[in-house]
Amino acid sequence: MLRLTEIKLPLDHSDDDLKNAIIKKLGINPDELISYSIFKRSYDARKRSKITLVYHLDAETSRNDELLQRLQNDPHVKHTPDTRYHFVAEAPENLTSRPIVIGTGPCGLFAGLILAQMGFRPIILERGKSVRERTADTFGMWRNKKELDPESNVQFGEGGAGTFSDGKLHTQIKDRKHHGRKVLTELVKAGAPEEILYISKPHVGTYKLVTVVEHIRKTIESLGGEIRFQSRVDDLLIEDNQVAGVKLANGEQIISKHVILAVGHSARDTFQMLYNQGVAIEAKPFSIGLRVEHPQSLIDQSRFGKFAGHPLLGAADYKLVHHCKNGRSVYSFCMCPGGTVVAAASEPGGVVTNGMSQYSRNERNANSAIVVEVTPKDYPGHPLAGIDFQRHWEECAFIEGGSNYEAPAQRVGDFLSGQPSLMSGAVEPSYKPGIRLGDLSRCLPDYATEAIREALVAFNRKIEGFSMADAMLTGVETRTSSPIIIQRKADYQSLNTDGLYPAGEGAGYAGGILSSAIDGIKAAEAVALNMLEK
Ligand SMILES: Cc1cc2nc3c(=O)[nH]c(=O)nc-3n(C[C@H](O)[C@H](O)[C@H](O)COP(=O)(O)OP(=O)(O)OC[C@H]3O[C@@H](n4cnc5c(N)ncnc54)[C@H](O)[C@@H]3O)c2cc1C
Fold it and tell me: I want to staple 436 with a disulfide (CB 3.0 to 4.6 A). Which of 254, 258, 300, 402 is the partner?
């Protein structure tokens, strides 16, 4: 096959236009093109008046070798690379020991899946409930029908933190071995839309993710793996700096010398336990800020002009960054086109915001977090001090919201002029269970408030209307990434505890669904190779 890149066509082109573009690019007769498929499709919207689709295509012709020779100096025609996944090991049939995976977020789920596919029959331990029960708890809390359950919420339970999300599936990490392709392929097998394999910024959306997660669990079980819910790991068994197993909240001990730790960024009690056990941990930077909501139509118009609403473009997103006079950088994070703002706390007495969308992305508002990077200099002295820092601002937001899990909210106009909001305007806030108007500067350090004010105005120069007075802010956004890094060696084992494989977002090695899943695959490969060696 030949991989053709950077084939550009207008938005409303036909299938024949695409076929003709391939024929023209390769300089062949129509009957010499046997077949073709789309490897990737993106759009170039830098010129709003002339938005184009950009294709990477795989073409089969009757003259592949000759064409490769003739076009060898063309950087946009190459041999199609092998992007299939190749397993690194296979468990012998008589293997009796079993690896443990803690957590069923994208990292733990994919670690478990790969181990199961290689025949290692993992035992996967999840503190929360199965995804259907968890959905009832989480949506129940949002609809004010249930209390926040610290073990079953947006952060904890089958599927992990990204289950109720926009399900964006792109990452900027280098992925030379195409692990990302393996993740997307498995997601499609489990029921995700096939287009995630070829559109450049795919997303799945909340409801579809629930089914996908359930399907992957069934696959793991069919391969001899075991998934146990409501099984919180409260302690590690460690002998001579080597993991010997885990202890669950109910006192049960499970013995294994290979434990993948994929607990996500909100497992604060687990981080404390690891620290108490002497596992190597350091504080790391993360970001805090607020969620902003605009009419989606404003973002569509600004990005796509007359093409706003085109089905191939969908609801527009954005990515913004501003370097402030006070030395801080502010950027947009986890943008959810046509979505809603959701309650993402996992601890009683705190309010945390985040965003989610359905696959259709057809809610009225666009939302994204506008966040400021903070570093251990802002929370000095202790490896876990970033957690106290997060908790402090989450508690401030809880109080400002009325101490009942409503989120404090403020119009952008009032936030910029330093006045509490007394009434909302044209943009109706979507946060559930509800909002209480107030003053968000009470929920952030002064330097962050100052930086976000400056950035909102600067962003208005990129997206006209971004700092419109009626745009709505809610807060506080603290769980952007892990406040710690659990240090590991090149072989994925903890720096000072053999057999412990810290992985995914909580350990500080990923940020997002796709990168966490990829890290889970790599941790599984490391475990498999080590188990066969010993
Ligand atoms: C509302 C929301 C929307 C998001 N939207 C997106 C998006 O659109 N795209 C994107 O790329 N990312 C998104 N993210 C971020 C993404 O979800 C995370 O980056 C990703 O889930 C991290 O994966 P992980 O497996 O490392 O950890 P997690 O997904 O956090 O999973 C960790 C799991 O471990 C379990 N656990 C924790 N401690 C223990 C213990 N002691 N014992 C047993 N089990 C334990 C938890 O219950 C949890 O299920 C979103 C996050 C949220 C909260």
Answer: 402
